[in-house]
Structures are given as structure tokens and as C-alpha cells.
Amino acid sequence: MPAIEATILSGQNVDLLPLAYEHHDQLVEAARDGNLWQLWYTGVPAPEDMSAHIDRCLALQASGAMIPFSVVDKRTQRLAGMTTYLNIDRAAPRLEIGGTWYATRVQRTPLNTEAKLLLLSHAFDSFGCLAVEFRTHFMNHQSRRAIERLGAKLDGVLRQHMRMRDGSLRDTCVYSIISSEWPAVRSNLKWQLDKPRTSTEISA
């Protein structure tokens, strides 16, 4: 795998910027839109924890284990959330796209579809990944539906995989897209972005 370095990924609806300390205030604002940290089945940092979360992500980036991005909604030029390359395995090569969360105001827009297209394109076409993985809480049905709409297939469920902030144990659904599936997945994501949209549609 070529060296994975922080870079800007840009589309029509969204820009993915390497995470930086100066993003703190806008990320807090985005997390407040919907009080996202109160969803028990997610790991969205609370406003008072955002600084420590940025510290942790940048430390993992320095170790080569993670590439965190801040998500810019190009309609407003404001940060709308975060997404991450993590569990980077250069030997395979493969990685996971995760740690993704968005302000409520962008959750029914093409932003996430295009963000995933940018991330997957970079992983498969630039890094030559054999597979890209997605993980989510078994009870996070919105996230599971979104991952499945991408074209990812369920590999399995890791029972009692991790402990959540409230002390409950998470069963983790593991999905993946492999390199042979990528051309069809790419075509489907581009079609989703190009097709006429209705007010009730929810982007992947």
C-alpha cells in the first residue's frame, strides 16, 4: 500500500479536510445539531469532550493507525461532522471507514453519499485496498441501512464486542466491500448522486 497521508478530498457537495485543532468549535456546533452524543448506540463526543477526542484522533494519526477528516457542507461552508479511515492494515492492504457522524441538518442530503464515494475511491483507486470495512452497533438500524445501501455485505456480528459509555455491551455488525465489487458500488453511488431526489429520500 502507498503511504497513507492526510489529504483533502473534494466533491460537489462536500469537502473532507484533515482534522485540525481549529475545527473544534464548528464540530461542537455540528454535534449540538440534534444532540448527537445523547444517542446511546453511537460514540459521538459530547461538546465538553470534543477537545480530548481531537487529541486522541490526532495521536492515532501520528502513529499511523488513523486518518481523521472533518466534513464540510459546501452549501454553507460549515463543518457538519467527522469521518475516519481507521484500522489501517498496510500489509493486506485494507482499512475501515468509521467514526462517522453528521449534524442533523445534513442527514437527508447527498452529503454522506458523496463523502463515501470520495473515501471509497481514495481507498480502492489510490491505496489499492483489497477490502474496505464498515462497523456499527447492531441496534443502530439507521447506520446499518445506510451501509447496506452503499452495497456493502454483512460479514458477521461480533457478539459483546465492546463496552459503550453507558456500560452496555455492543454487538458489532461488520460489513465490507471488496475490490471486485468496487466498480458496481461506484456506479451505484454515482447514480444515487445524479438521480432526481425527493424530499423523503435519505442518502446512504
Automatic annotation (TrEMBL):
Keywords annotated in UniProt: Transferase
Residues in N-acetyltransferase domain copies: 16-153
Classification via InterPro entries: Acyl_CoA_acyltransferase, GNAT_dom
GO molecular function, one term: acyltransferase activity, transferring groups other than amino-acyl groups
Pfam families xref list: Acetyltransf_3
Database matches in PANTHER family: BLL6696 PROTEIN, N-ACETYLTRANSFERASE DOMAIN-CONTAINING PROTEIN
Name recorded for this polypeptide: Protein N-acetyltransferase, RimJ/RimL family
Organism: Rhizobium hainanense
Lineage per the UniProt record: Bacteria, Pseudomonadati, Pseudomonadota, Alphaproteobacteria, Hyphomicrobiales
